From TrEMBL:
InterPro entries: Wzi_sf (IPR038636). The lineage of its organism: Bacteria, Bacteria division WOR-3. It comes from candidate division WOR-3 bacterium. This is Uncharacterized protein. It comes from the Bacteria.
Length: 421
């Protein structure tokens, strides 16, 4: 009861409008410069802080720069508080309050450590953190924590973090910022101005299976889960960037086999073919083109079930996902329009431990597969200290989810009838 009263009292404390964003101020400013064509647009988040680059004499630019200064001030104090207040309806309308103290400190010029915890009365656990409610009223845990080394060419992080991979910023077919933070190692490097790369390896914990499976020559009822991801980014011109990504979720019983997909420059699908184990591999092809301060991005997701050998007939529906998006900075605003389609059987797989979910939440797009829709978004800075956000969207959702029971899509049932999207 005391904790509930404490949270209710905190709900009356003014929360600075710059806080509670998934993206940092600097990351948002990098994206803003990218869609304006000042710098090549990145599809790697988090972004390392470098020079701020160009300064635009409009309220939107001034708002972002003040936001950067505000976050730098907090960071210089080593510890700061992030808070958010909302409302939800379950059995009754009640305030939802989250508080996240964060500590950052430098160990050397190139090494930094960070810890972020959270306290919330959102017992539905909308982010999917691996926690249990305290007294069925409060949840608390570690949202982020890592040790990071960085220089001009290399970035290495070990610990728990959020990760995002898309030119589209708010949409991602492989990794979304709304996914559950994972424990692991993240490496990003830049060989030269034309070539850079990303690598991530994470533990997804263990899974207790509903029934016994024959795997690696023995019957199992529990298995450890892992995720490995790598990406190559090519900057052909300042206005044209391409990337190829490969992500693999796999389960292993033997500790000696957990490093099957750990070398960043191997093709995972080739490795899977050589070790002859049915893991879940996804490919993503991304392109970003900037023309006259209008930014166009496209992402194609291909599930490995799409191109595996299936005999003389190919009866399955396409296992593909698409996002096409246009962003245009207009005076003191940014206007965006996007279309997304993810077919019904993407992310899923016959083995439950290989499905593209973590703690019952989607790792890729938060709405999962079997969906298509269009979304318009507008961000308008009415002054150097405030802005408003307008969003309109329409989506069609089928009955398939990343966790749906697996039925082979190549059966005759799916040959004659379209199932989902």
């Amino acid at each position: 009861m005391i904790l509930i009263v404490f949270l209710l009292l905190l709900s009356f404390i003014p929360v600075h409008p710059y806080m509670s964003d998934r993206f940092s101020a600097y990351e948002e400013y990098v994206w803003y410069q990218g869609i304006k064509g000042t710098i090549p647009l990145t599809n790697n988040y988090p972004v390392e802080i470098k020079e701020s680059g160009a300064v635009y004499e409009n309220n939107y630019s001034k708002f972002l720069l003040k936001k950067i200064d505000f976050e730098k001030t907090l960071k210089n104090q080593n510890i700061f508080l992030d808070a958010s207040v909302g409302a939800s309806y379950h059995d009754s309308i009640a305030p939802t309050i989250s508080i996240s103290p964060k500590v950052e400190f430098s160990l050397t010029d190139n090494i930094e450590a960070s810890v972020k915890v959270f306290l919330s009365n959102d017992i539905d656990n909308s982010r999917g953190f691996p926690i249990k409610p305290f007294k069925e009223k409060i949840i608390a845990g570690f949202e982020r924590g890592y040790v990071k080394y960085s220089n001009e060419k290399l970035f290495v992080l070990f610990g728990r973090m959020d990760y995002h991979s898309s030119f589209s910023k708010d949409n991602s077919l492989l990794f979304d910022y709304k996914a559950v933070p994972m424990d692991g190692i993240y490496l990003s490097g830049e060989a030269n101005r034309y070539f850079s790369y990303d690598f991530k390896y994470a533990s997804l914990g263990s899974m207790k299976l509903d029934s016994t499976y024959l795997f690696e020559g023995e019957d199992i009822d529990v298995i450890s889960r892992y995720l490995s991801f790598h990406k190559i980014i090519l900057t052909l011109k300042d206005y044209l960037r391409l990337s190829f990504s490969e992500s693999c979720i796999f389960g292993r019983k033997s500790i000696g086999n957990i490093l099957d997909y750990t070398f960043p420059f191997f093709i995972f699908y080739g490795e899977q073919n050589n070790i002859d184990i049915n893991d879940n591999i996804l490919w993503a092809f991304d392109v970003n083109y900037n023309y006259c301060r209008v930014n166009l991005s496209y992402s194609l997701l291909v599930d490995d079930y799409q191109y595996e050998y299936e005999g003389t007939k190919d009866l399955e529906p396409p296992e593909l996902g698409h996002i096409v998006r246009i962003d245009a900075p207009v005076c003191c605003a940014v206007m965006s329009l996007s279309y997304m389609r993810i077919n019904a059987w993407v992310y899923n797989q016959r083995y439950p431990w290989n499905r593209y979910i973590f703690n019952s939440k989607n790792i890729g797009d938060e709405m999962g597969p079997d969906i298509q829709g269009i979304e318009g978004n507008g961000l308008f800075a009415y002054s150097s200290t405030g802005r408003v956000n307008f969003k309109v969207s329409y989506f069609e959702k089928g009955d398939n989810y990343s966790s749906s029971d697996w039925i082979f899509p190549i059966s005759d049932t799916y040959y004659y009838k379209q199932i989902g999207i």
